[in-house]
Automatic annotation (TrEMBL), chain A:
GO cellular component assignments: mediator complex
Family membership noted in the UniProt record: Belongs to the protein kinase superfamily. CMGC Ser/Thr protein kinase family. CDC2/CDKX subfamily.
Organism for this UniProt entry: Cephalotus follicularis
GO molecular function term, any single one: RNA polymerase II CTD heptapeptide repeat kinase activity
Enzyme class: transferase
Domain named Protein kinase: residues: 31-341
Annotated segments matching region Disordered: 1-25, 372-396, 428-483
InterPro entries, alphabetized: CDK, Kinase-like_dom_sf, Prot_kinase_dom, Protein_kinase_ATP_BS, Ser/Thr_kinase_AS
The protein's name in its UniProt record: Cyclin-dependent kinase E-1
EC number, UniProt record: 2.7.11.22, 2.7.11.23
Bias-annotated ranges (Pro residues): 473-483
PROSITE patterns: PROTEIN_KINASE_ATP (PS00107), PROTEIN_KINASE_DOM (PS50011), PROTEIN_KINASE_ST (PS00108)
From TrEMBL, chain B:
Span list, region Disordered: 302-333
GO biological process, one term: regulation of transcription by RNA polymerase II
Keywords: Cell cycle, Cell division, Cyclin
Phylogenetic classification of the source organism: Eukaryota, Viridiplantae, Streptophyta, Embryophyta, Tracheophyta
Coiled-coil regions, chain positions: none
One Gene Ontology cellular component annotation held by this UniProt entry: nucleus
Name of the protein in question: Cyclin-H1-1
Compositional bias ranges of the Basic residues kind: 310-319
Biased composition (Polar residues): 320-333
Assembly mode: Interacts with the CDC2 protein kinase to form a serine/threonine kinase holoenzyme complex also known as maturation promoting factor (MPF). The cyclin subunit imparts substrate specificity to the complex.
Cyclin-like domain ranges (all copies): 87-168
Record has Coiled coil as a keyword: no
Family: Belongs to the cyclin family.
A GO term for molecular function: cyclin-dependent protein serine/threonine kinase regulator activity
Organism per entry: Cephalotus follicularis (Albany pitcher plant)
Amino acid sequence: MGDGNNTTTTNNRGSNSTSNNSEKPEWLQQYNLIGKIGEGTYGLVFLARTKSPANRGKSIAIKKFKLSKDGDGVSPTAIREIMLLREISHENVVKLVNVHINHADMSLYLAFDFAEYDLYEIIRHHRDKVNSAINQYTVKSLLWQLLNGLNYLHSNWIIHRDLKPSNILVMGDGEEQGVVKIADFGLARIYQGPLKPLCDNGVVVTIWYRAPELLLGGKHYTSAVDMWAVGCIFAELLTLKPLFQGQEAKSTPNPFQFDQLDKIFKILGHPTLEKWPTLANLPHWQSDSQHIQTRKYENIGLHSVVHLSQKSAAYDLLSKMLEYDPRKRITAAQALDHEYFRMDPLPGRNALVPSQPGEKVVNYPTRPVDTNTNFEGTTSLQSSQPVSSGNQVSGNMAGAHLAPNRSAPRQMAPINMQRMQPPGMMNYNFPSQSAAASGLNPGSMAMQQRGMAAQAHQQQQLRRKDPGMGMPGYPPPQKSRRL
Amino acid sequence: MADFQTSTHRAKWIFTPAALVEKYKAANRRAIRTLEQYGTTQMEVDLDGSISYPEPQISAKENADRYSRPKPLNTEEEQFMRVYYENKLREVCCAFYFPHKIQATALIYFKRFYLQWSVMEHQPKHIMLTCVYAACKIEENHVSAEELGKGISQDHQMILNYEMIVLQSLEFDLIVYAPYRSVEGFVNDMEEFLHANDDQLQIFKDLHETAKMEVDKIMLTDAPLLFTPGQLALAALRRSNEVHAVLDFQRYLGSIISRQNSAFTTAELFESLDAIDSLVMSYKFPSERDMKHINRKLKSCWGHDDGKKREKKSRHKSQKSSNEIQNGPSMAE
């Protein structure tokens, strides 16, 4: 922390309302802005390169959060993302490199290491351009790393709650090539003892990856909801198509998503109380919304949809992820132990290299960058680049917020991509590994001996020895500790 | 919850007694220096949440000669001021029926904030409210600034103005570990340790309740900046156990230590618990006279020429701070 004086002064001078805009805030001067790479309801995402000699040219993704629109201070989404990322550190989770404050408009800028790819783009590329499946080694490596990061999060009592292909990043060229990074923690929650049921804040995420217990009105998120999403993503990696592509009902703030359930039931069959006893307590099931209890479904069979033999290890793992009863659903730790990952091809750190010599490398498209934009409201831009006004940018954002199926302007896109984005938020997030950040790396700092630090959080230990899991350090996902 | 062992709380916000004293002294010295230079100590916070150092007051010197020179607070007086507002903070949280967790989080924020700043620099009343506001946001019990302000008849804009400064001063380390949960965990463990049967449940309940009250006392001292939540919880439980005589505490501590292969001895642990106890025993709440005296001094430090200061604010905004920025709020450097 150093001297209080240093850590507490503001960093942005020269951008108050009266100052001229030609002077860049200091923090911004450490970057060269390349352009915009994404936008969402929270704000914009930029690509920049560091200027500092040590890391010159290193690509950084900068996510800008607007001030919360209801005039209630700093965006809670931003705060949540920052506070969680400050506490965690794992190879398969994005790492926050820096946080900057722009006082001119009270916005926050989060700097991450840039990841060139994400599963959304990789899948889309295979589906639309390559016209062939993703090779087995890559699928397995991506899945393993995703589970590895998720296991870390879950054992730290964090549920992501918004896993989907566009939030699973993959590093491009460099030391970490082909490494998976779980991104976008704006909806993530710590699930040990929050004060209110977690459903309270009107969650707006894509419904395709939403677990059935939530679709049926379940109020409590457990880490099992993330595993359902992983199952959906696994299937999508195999078939290149979203597994349950429901139409979202948008009428009311929290409508019953019948179509999504319908899509699930068509493939997995109708759930039964026998297999899923707590089903009876779920609100929408209980109230028999749209006659959900009595509809008839033929079970097409998951295996036929994903073209896997029912005897294969891949199918076994997938079906355990898509288990209806969240209490029976496989956990991340159990999944990592699954036979599938012990069979050839074994998963690897670089998911994007060919598994066999001679196999051709797929060249995924790099992220489109819209250079025709600026860090809104903070600066005059890189002199070499044409720039639109800050106002215009914010205008776009407002539009983005309203339009349910918007796609970001992508002038630089190699192909004209339309990212079909179900309402929700966030396309992009950015990982970082470098983290030159001593402050970001709590473990690395010497801590004074205060007697028995080791047993400090005794209750952690106590919680973890909860029966039923046999997995040290892994929280029992189905225990409701939430209230 | 994220693991305490790898938390920012443990890594950055638990100090040795000497380091803590030094931090308080440093903030105090800086404010005094500012007072000498500028004739006032209070930082200004703009609508946009940025802060500026006070105006250099050319007339400060003569003023000082003609009237009474502004007298800075010493570190004891600063401590009184913090103590006073920590109690206020608790009152506010009680008035809103906020859960313990929010109160504890807000208290820890408040304590951490004044490791970075002197009470002469930022009005503790404002900071206290902003800490409560931030704690509500973080603990998912969102209360709008307006609602909070209304509830205690304070201008909520002030809360919003200070929010960024507070977050920044906390270095965005917003997940904090209060001892209440640890107490709960230890009580459960004690039940197991004693193979408690159902008849004994009430006694454990009593033990738990008294311990929570002990934690309440501990939370108002400096102990949360000096010890881990687990240690604070054990100190509270030890005192509670003195009342309820549920178990042989020393033997219990011995058992935890051996179970966890701890590098520490029971004696060392006892030493920490004793230190926590003595912080609680020596806790002093300022008298009305103390507060009057301190407030008078503070007023002189803050000056009363609000109008004059505001006028020049935007221009002045800070050469002084800009050179401090490098290691500023960016958390990672």
